[in-house]
């Protein structure tokens, strides 16, 4: 019985683990360069959004993932506002192979962070007296797959056979 208990303990110890430790705003920026004149114009916005992620290993099995979302809104040709958030999280991740770890850090964690970033940006834009900024959901799994394909095509990482 002791041997069985030991085997079960070893299996549990080596089992994949994922735990969200903390979500926080790392950096936040809002700029309305044409205020107050922009508020007197007819509102015909065009929106561009940039996404970026980065991650770094902290102590042991702890990782920080930072999702940066930058949005520029122009009214006709003039910049109405620029808003950016670096939404970050600390995650405990262990027991994953390299491919699974890469996917977890590159897609799964950003999927968790995006709703927080989206709400932060919307709140900030409304406080700047602009209409709500309701960003559409983002498929980070598809973006991750595109990035891996791009890296394989450019030879940055070897193709999986």
Topology:
Elements: H1 2-14, E1 17-31, E2 45-57, E3 62-75, E4 78-94, H2 98-127, H3 140-153
Helix pairs in contact: 2-3
InterPro entries: SecB, SecB-like_sf
Subcellular location: Cytoplasm
GO biological process, one term: protein transport
Mean pLDDT across all residues, rounded? 91
CATH superfamily: SecB-like
Query: What is the CATH-assigned architecture?
Result: Roll
Shape descriptor reads: elongated
The first-to-last residue Cα distance is: 43 Å
Determine Rg (CA atoms, Å).
21 Å
Question: Which structural traits does this protein have?
Answer:
161 residues, Bacterial Protein-export protein SecB, four-stranded antiparallel sheet, 3 helices, 37% strand, translocation, cytoplasm, chaperone, unfolded protein binding, transport
Describe this structure in words.
The chain has 161 residues and is α+β, with helices and mostly antiparallel strands. It is built from three helices and four strands. It has helices spanning 2-14, 98-127, 140-153, and strands at 17-31, 45-57, 62-75, 78-94. The chain has a four-stranded antiparallel beta sheet. The longest helix has 30 residues, at 98-127. The relative contact order is 0.17.
Summarize the structure.
InterPro entries: SecB, SecB-like_sf. The model has no long low-confidence stretch (mean pLDDT 91).
């Amino acid at each position: 019985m002791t041997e069985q208990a030991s085997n079960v303990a070893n299996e549990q110890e080596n089992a994949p683990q994922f735990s969200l430790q903390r979500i926080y705003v790392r950096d936040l920026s809002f700029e309305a360069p044409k205020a107050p004149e922009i508020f007197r114009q007819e509102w015909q916005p065009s929106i561009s959004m940039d996404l970026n992620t980065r991650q770094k290993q902290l102590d042991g099995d702890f990782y920080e993932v930072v999702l940066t979302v930058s949005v520029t809104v122009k009214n006709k040709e003039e910049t109405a506002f620029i808003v950016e958030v670096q939404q970050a999280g600390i995650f405990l991740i262990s027991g994953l192979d390299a491919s699974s770890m890469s996917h977890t850090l590159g897609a799964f964690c950003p999927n968790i962070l995006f709703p927080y970033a989206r709400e932060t940006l919307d709140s900030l834009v409304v406080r700047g007296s602009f209409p709500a900024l309701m960003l559409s959901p983002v498929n980070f799994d598809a973006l991750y797959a595109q990035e891996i394909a791009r890296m394989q095509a450019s030879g940055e990482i070897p193709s999986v056979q």
